[in-house]
Specification:
CATH architecture of the largest domain: 3-Layer(aba) Sandwich
Largest sheet: 8 strands, mixed
CATH superfamily of the largest domain: ANL, N-terminal domain
Number of domains: 2
Strand content: 15-25%
CATH class of the largest domain: Alpha Beta
CATH topology of the largest domain: Rossmann fold
Low-confidence stretches: none
Number of helices: 10
Order of helices and strands: HHHEEHEHEHEHEHEEEEEEEEEEHEEHEE
Mean pLDDT: 92
Strand order of the largest sheet: 4-3-5-6-7-8-9-13
Helix content: 25-40%
Length: 411
């Protein structure tokens, strides 16, 4: 997207924000460059939004229009604190459907495809916009809420769905359940699995593991947030790369500690400004997502949209330092999935005498594989230069997750 077109969208947003109480006095009325906007506008933090909604219940003051203009309600899960409530006008909702349409089209979805959404359809944004974008495209959108995994698999097969939308964790869990049912997933019509909610779709080991379990179906990653909207799509040419839609978002990658911008090719925190969700916008929002931007301007797929290598690497607050080594959840995930033989796992974090230690509990695919723990420990040691104990646990003893997995726990 040209800088001029992006600037026009940004100034349209700034003009509308004159009636937004949350951003009153925080933004310029107009700017001549994106750089001017970034210099004049402070970051927006999640905690600010939460506190604003607590102070001005129930919806806070980040509303550009009268309350009667809003027709959509979403809410974050609140797993790390108070949930955020988010309202959208029809115009802002349609803007998000346009974002999801891009995701679907790049994934190869065409009118007439049958898309199964293995999703609970609760109050969080999740796949709501993906579902409606699919119907608007002319696809048959099949809701999978309120169903057990066995029933979902039967519905997928019975409706001859050829696209599946779910989290990476749940795609693997469905494969596990299918094996127990004696269902050969290669015999289903599923050709593409669009995953979101976790970094797994851009982790090579996890992606290949899902594709193998689903008979060669192609895994396509996507990421977004309830409060920011659908932001990125999986590169059609480079697996493991996410492109942020720069015609719809201003993108910055910053040093999380110093809050300063980083050049292309750097690893830092992703900061987003949504240019079209005008009814409830976020400006320079500190997402907390850790990313590495590509130094190359034009991707092999032809787009100029910024490329995030490895997708979302993790959360800035998820990284743990173990004996001087930075350990990210995505690195552990890749090692476990690449090693193979792992059905589910949990990482326990303990702190003793100011030292952080990790240990892994692993549920093996084959209970008669006594060397699995040793192989995992050796791979972890080679990759991270750390000795991390691995313990085998009984089949079915670790929790299963339909939405975002919670595998890292403090003990």
């Amino acid at each position: 997207m040209s800088g001029e077109t992006q600037l026009i969208a940004l100034n349209r947003l700034l003009r509308e924000l004159r009636t937004n109480q949350f951003y009153a006095g925080r933004t310029p009325a107009s700017v001549t460059t994106v750089e001017e906007f970034c210099q004049a506008t402070p970051f927006t933090f999640k905690l600010e939004i939460v506190e604003d909604q607590l102070t001005h219940p129930p919806f806070g003051t980040n509303l550009t229009y009268p309350l009667t203009n809003y027709t959509r309600f979403c809410q974050t899960s609140g797993t790390t604190g108070n949930p955020m409530r988010w309202l959208d006008t029809p115009q802002s909702w349609n803007w998000m459907l346009d974002c999801w349409t891009r995701v679907l089209e790049v994934a190869g979805v065409i009118p007439g495809d049958r898309i199964f959404f293995a999703f609970s359809f609760g109050p969080f944004l999740g796949f709501w916009t993906g579902f409606e974008a699919a119907t608007r495209m002319g696809c048959l959108a099949i809701p999978g809420g309120g169903m057990r995994s066995e029933a979902r698999l039967q519905a997928i097969a019975g409706a001859e769905a050829n696209i599946l939308c779910c989290t990476p964790t749940y795609a693997l869990h469905l494969a596990e359940v299918a094996a127990e049912m004696g269902l050969d997933l290669a015999s289903t019509s599923i050709r593409t699995i669009i995953v979101a909610g976790e970094p797994g779709g851009s982790i090579a080991g996890t992606r290949s593991h899902i594709e193998k379990r689903w008979g060669g179906a192609k895994v396509v990653d996507h990421h977004g947030m309830t409060e920011i909207g659908p932001a990125s799509y999986g590169c059609p040419q480079c697996p493991g790369v996410l492109h942020v839609m720069e015609d719809r978002f201003l993108v910055e990658v910053i040093d999380a500690e110093r809050g300063v911008g980083l050049p292309r090719g750097s690893t830092g925190e992703l900061v987003l400004t949504n240019l079209g969700r005008i009814g409830s916008p976020l400006l320079r929002y500190r997402t907390g997502d850790l990313v590495k931007s590509s130094a190359v301007q034009r991707c092999a797929c032809g787009t100029l949209d910024i490329a995030l290598e490895g997708g979302i690497l993790g959360r800035t607050d998820d990284m743990v330092v173990v004996r001087g080594v930075n350990v990210y959840p995505s690195a552990i995930e890749h090692i476990l999935r690449s090693t193979g033989g792992v059905v589910e796992y949990r990482v326990e974090i303990s702190e003793s005498r100011s030292l952080t230690e990790l240990r892994l509990e692993v549920e093996p695919e084959n209970g008669n594989d006594p060397g699995l723990a040793h192989r995992i420990e050796a791979t972890l040691r080679d990759a991270l230069a750390l000795r991390i104990p691995v313990t085998m646990v009984a089949s079915g003893s670790l929790p299963r997750f339909e939405m975002k997995a919670k595998r890292w726990v403090k003990v």
